[in-house]
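Study this chain:
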Amino acid sequence: MAILTNGGIASSLLSCILRLWPACAALLPGQPDEDTITINLVALLSNDAVVRRICYFVIYQHEPFGIHPGGAKFSKGKIDFAVVLDQERERYVAYECKRLNVTHGGARSSLATRYVKDGMMRFLTEQYAEGLPVGCMLAYVMDGDLPFSLTQVMAAINAHKTALALINGATQGQAIAGIERFSTLHKRANQTIIELRHVLLPFSIALAQASISGQVRTRHAT
């Protein structure tokens, strides 16, 4: 297995997620809930030969352990899924997953505020994130409208920038056709810095397939 940093693992896993994303979307018609999507994505990642070469395991609802002064273990909180780097279960890259652009009765809800308050904030408040240099946010854009979801998420981040202890603004990641990606920097209460890497994925199977085709064309062009 290659020895990579947390950031290197996150970059390598993104390529695997993009490759497997159409297969995941094809399994789940309609508007499945967040947990159902995440379970199926994790199952695909766990069985993928490339993923197995770059990390030890991918775990759904991973619970890292803390240790009380007397030696007893306790849960430091549940992570939507984690990429465990080796047999030491406390070395991992954490992923928080959220749906965006969900339609109910013909009306669309962006859910961008929930993305910030119930997703990003966990990297600042939960014990499992205290020492992490990098964390990942994965957004399932249910209607495939990436420009709208990106605009709404950026507005929600700006509206909560104080609570998020945001350092400067968002930084766009390297362009990949068919998805949106950016990163944000945050200062935790213990004064350490964490980088959050955000990826917005279209859930529609047709858009997911187009995303991967565009990614391949972009790579060939470069």
